[in-house]
């Protein structure tokens, strides 16, 4: 039987959620910066006994990110919606994953797909167009290469097309099916038209 990615993609409004990142190293910076690039007003708390200088330098422009300088404690999960573990301590990650599960919190453990409720995919963004790419946790490198390809082939002026289509969508009359048909006709070849 052919392998199938059974993940269900969603786009979260991170500004409305409370995220905990456990760790202060390179991976923590990678995860926090990915969230902040996509949702600059994200409410993030990071807990770690130390934070790398690069992490501190990056986060100085995000005053809403709370840094907690100590080891993880169970009450760090209070009021959270998502938890992301980024340390090199597998046993700690297993413990946090179990605590999160008891509280019905979604948990991501970097580089440990078996402990993850969700993955952070590779993202392409041009204006309002956003595409998330997943390899089901098998190859982040391939996802990054696909992202680079899409960034190259999607025109930089795609926002103009999106704005025009939004205006047309609002002006179209008729039932839902006829609107979809009209928009399908308008968008044929739009992105890759030379």
Largest sheet: 5 strands, parallel
Report Rg.
20 Å
Order of helices and strands: EHEHEEHEEEHHH
Residues in helices, as a percent range: 25-40%
N- and C-termini, Cα separation: 39 Å
General form: elongated
Please state how the strands of the largest beta sheet are arranged side by side: 3-2-1-4-5
Q: Counting H and I runs of at least 4 residues, what is the number of helices?
A: 6
Indicate the mean pLDDT.
91
Class from helix and strand fractions: alpha/beta
Strand content: 15-25%
What are the segments in which pLDDT stays under 50 over at least 5 consecutive residues? none
Number of strands: 7
What would you say this structure looks like, in words?
- This protein has helices at 26-38, 53-59, 90-102, 140-153, 158-171, 176-187, and strands at residues 18-22, 43-48, 66-69, 82-85, 106-109, 122-126, 129-133.
- It is an alpha/beta fold and 194 residues long.
- The strands form two sheets. The chain has a five-stranded parallel sheet, with helices on both faces.
- Helix 1 links the parallel strand 1 and strand 2.
- Helix 1 runs parallel beside helix 2 (53-59).
- The protein is elongated and about 55 Å long.
- It starts with 17 loop residues before the first strand and ends in a 7-residue tail after the last helix.
